[in-house]
Amino acid sequence: MGEETVSKNFIEQEIDKDLAEGVYSEVCTRFPPEPNGYLHIGHAKSILLNSGLAKKYNGTFHLRFDDTNPMKEDMEFVESIKEDVAWLGADWKEHLYFASDYFDVMYECAVKLIKKGKAFVCDLTADEIREYRGTLKEPGKNSPYRDRSVEENLQLFEEMKEGKYKDGEKVLRAKIDMSSPNINMRDPVIYRVAHMTHHNTGDKWCIYPMYDFAHPIEDAVEKITHSICTLEFEDHRPLYDWVVKECEFDPAPRQIEFAKLYLTNVVTGKRYIKKLVMDGIVDGWDDPRLVSIAALRRRGFTPESLKMFIELCGVSKSQSSVDYAMLEYCIREDLKLKKSRMMAVLDPIKLVIDNYPEGEVEYLDVDNNMENPELGKRQIPFCRELYIEREDFMIEPPKKYFRLFPGNEVRLMNAYFVKCESFETDADGNVTVVHATYDPETKCGTGFTGRKVKGTIHWVAAPYAKQAEVRLYENLVDEEKGVYNKEDGSLNLNPNSLTILKECYVEDSFKDAKGCDSFQFVRNGYFCIDSKDSTSENLVFNRIVSLKSSFKLPK
């Protein structure tokens, strides 16, 4: 047999080429989030791609906070990002950094550019700079302050640093080419005045670098070899390379772009999520209806399921959207053999087995997961009074309804055959109690072959059941209308995105479960214990995903 061919994505092919040609002797990657919100599913792709490349090439992975904009940043976001990255299994070891760690270096680089005649202090307002920039079809025109002397620029920049100017009064701009076809190269602003307290550096600085200037310097200082980012930064690459070259860094990091991960019918924009949080429409940045990493974790998704999802999406240069159903497919695949299949009744009515001895209880041996014997067995109590699902009984059933109705017999899962004899209703005609008789010879596992039944239903023993709250989640977005309202840009929200069931009953086996533990509720879906609201006295379950899916993996 010949050697197996291992398919590599285009980034791996480029890294192989760089290593073979001796451009770099090792690989160093980074994930550089801005701490101005919680990370979402798209960030997971970047985290797993960058950390995965470092691991594959026995290199180094850095986590670096791009905290150059104190207006929007917060330590809450720093801590949440660290938790998310660690949860996904991306280990930065001792390589945790902040862009603000390099503010002194960035300032020195700016001074170097001024001395080389490559940067100048400009007095134009933001609107005027925009006006002078030109368009995609017309070149820009030079600022009237572009030809200031090196000495004057050094003095003005020092005065900016000393706090002598108001916000927006002066900026430092790179001196490149106002006629460049790439608008990013038309003398971009690289420093601005901002009298704000920074979460990391306090009040040391009142000037802050712009992202396009700071980012390549951060990469170069940390000796990042491959700066892997998304396609919107492709047009910024010439400026990235210009900064590294003119600031005289060697070796120079290399920027490579890949396509973003777009998921259908979800909200990922930080501005929109922040408004949902502020308006109380969702329960914080980790509301399980969102696709922030914290929300997916709280909902019950696993790191393994997200890795599977990202691998199925692949890495390419072409933009495309992925159906949310594929993410659901991945969590089902991950959980189906790992988790116990437990019994829970979400919409209960009582089933009384009239011929079962009052006060008696027996314990039945049940497989935790019939597809995975390694998960072992547990014992569950069985007695005279049980809870069953309301939909498992009908007074006048349609054809091919094989569950309980007067005169019909079904199997109680892992227990006995029972036959419906009668039922009770309240004043409004709602069924409150179903009465049945059981056949003691039909106990599950006894080898009974006397007759067959077509229906099997689940149940919990009423005296031993634990009451629980169950939260059923649907898409936050109205899928028929799409995410955004075309008229005003607002979100098209689904009013039924959350259903809370307060009076559910689960088997006693849940008594030792803790936050984030997940299970299959037989016939109902996969659920996990809410890490935020659940207590030992008040169990709260989030539905991760239903059991059935229309999604099929492409062949």
From TrEMBL:
InterPro entries: aa-tRNA-synth_I_CS, Gln-tRNA-synth, Gln/Glu-tRNA_Ligase, Glu/Gln-tRNA-synth, Glu/Gln-tRNA-synth_Ib_cat-dom, Glu/Gln-tRNA-synth_Ib_codon-bd, Glu_tRNA_lig_a-bdl, Rbsml_bL25/Gln-tRNA_synth_N. Its EC number is 6.1.1.18. Residues 456-530 form the tRNA synthetases class I (E and Q) anti-codon binding domain. The keyword S-adenosyl-L-methionine does not apply. This is Glutamine--tRNA ligase. Residues 341-439 form the Glutamyl/glutaminyl-tRNA synthetase class Ib anti-codon binding domain. GO terms for cellular component: cytosol. GO terms for biological process: glutaminyl-tRNA aminoacylation. Belongs to the class-I aminoacyl-tRNA synthetase family. NCBIfam families: glnS, PRK14703.1. It comes from Dorea phocaeensis. One of its GO terms (molecular function) is ATP binding. Residues 26-336 form the Glutamyl/glutaminyl-tRNA synthetase class Ib catalytic domain.
